[in-house]
Design a protein that fits this description.
The protein has 350 residues and is α/β, with parallel strands linked by helices. The protein has 12 helices and 13 strands. It has one domain: Aldolase class I (TIM Barrel, Alpha-Beta Barrel), CATH 3.20.20. Helix 4 links the parallel strand 3 and strand 4. Helix 7 runs parallel beside helix 8. It is globular, with a radius of gyration of 19 Å.
């Protein structure tokens, strides 16, 4: 089904196609279709079947299956119920910032179909944390929900912790886990927060606030940290040590890359922004492997980057990831990718 629709979507500007697709999913979710129509959707792979015996326990959370939606697709938590219909074991929304911001000027998303890749320089465009929390509270979804938080573009780096703390306080009551995004290449200087001193201070502040909020709300919401693929081995080892020292509950590897390996010479390859999709797969998997070896099982890894097939998802798990996420894969493969990855990771258990 998606192979028939994709040429029409690709005829649109990438960001317009994004919004059109999400609105279409919202409409489908609200249509009270007869049982036979729902069964037809299932047969066509539009809605992934619920797996049996595929649950994973990570961060103290029970995930019904290990295949998740990466942050970035639903920045404001507007489409949670519609996206849940696709069969994901968990959904991550955001990145959200304390105050609304428009992000970078358009155009800011570019397809590279020959490489099955995207370049984006969105820049944390979102409606602000209060709006996201309102949307989450309105949703019917009762599954595992991650909320990805960041800093506003005009917040100085030395005040970054204030933004992350403000977001953490707001999303804590409605999140299953919270992801600290310090790795987007599209907010100036954000990746400096991956440096040892900056990361130590940020994690210290966040973990202290997490403990306070756990007492206030009577529940502990785990923290995950999302890192970049553009790190040297020494940096990965240092980050692993910091995650262990602060008892961070998970690490997500990886965000988009500023490198352009595998896309040189293609239209839009030199656009500023982060590259995602198939060209990121090898580097992302390598970072997962390095993290896994450095962490020695002390902190679970969630694998992201270049998953466009069930085989790609298996590679992330083989490298050491306990869960996987994707976003760009949906652009090129459509909703059937969800079921394919679930089958690849849980096929012998379903």
């Amino acid at each position: 089904m998606y192979s028939l629709v994709r040429p029409l979507l690709f005829a649109l500007d990438a960001e317009n196609a994004h919004r059109f697709t999400l609105e279409a999913l919202r409409i489908i979710n609200h249509v009270q279709a007869p049982i036979d129509v729902l069964r037809e959707f299932l047969r066509l792979g539009f809605i992934a079947p619920t797996p049996v015996g595929c649950a994973r326990s990570v961060m103290g959370i029970s995930f019904p299956n290990p295949v998740g939606l990466a942050a970035g697709l639903d920045k404001n938590g507007e489409y949670i119920d519609a996206l849940a219909r696709l069969g994901f074991g968990f959904i991550e929304v955001g990145t959200v910032t304390p105050r609304s911001q428009p992000g970078n000027p358009r155009p800011r998303v570019f397809r590279l179909p020959a490489a099955r890749a995207l370049v984006n320089r969105l820049g944390f465009n979102n409606d602000g944390v209060d709006r996201l929390v309102e949307n989450v509270r309105r949703a019917d979804y009762k599954g595992v929900l991650g909320i990805n938080i960041g800093k506003n573009a005009d917040t100085p780096l030395e005040r970054a912790a204030d933004d992350y703390l403000a977001c953490l306080r707001k999303v804590y009551p409605v999140a299953s886990y919270v992801t600290v995004n310090i790795s987007s290449p599209n907010t100036p200087d954000l990746r400096e927060l991956q440096q040892a001193g900056e990361l130590d201070r940020l994690l210290g502040a966040l973990k202290a606030e997490q403990r306070r909020l756990a007492d206030v709300h009577g529940r502990r919401v785990p923290l995950a940290v999302k890192i970049a693929p553009d790190l040297e081995s020494a940096q990965i080892i240092a980050i692993a040590g910091m995650l262990q020292r602060h008892a961070v509950e998970a690490v997500i590897a990886t965000n988009t890359t500023t490198a352009r390996g595998g896309v040189t010479g293609l239209p839009h390859a030199e656009e500023a922004g982060g590259l995602s999709g198939a060209p990121l797969a090898v580097r992302s998997t390598a970072v997962i492997g390095e993290l896994t070896r450095a962490l020695k099982g002390s902190v679970p890894v969630i694998g992201v980057g270049g998953i466009l097939s069930g085989a790609d998802a298996r590679e992330k798990i083989a490298a050491g990831a306990q869960l996987v996420q994707f976003y760009t894969g949906l652009v090129y493969r459509g909703p059937a990718l969800v079921g394919e990855c679930i089958a690849a990771l849980c096929g012998q258990q379903t």
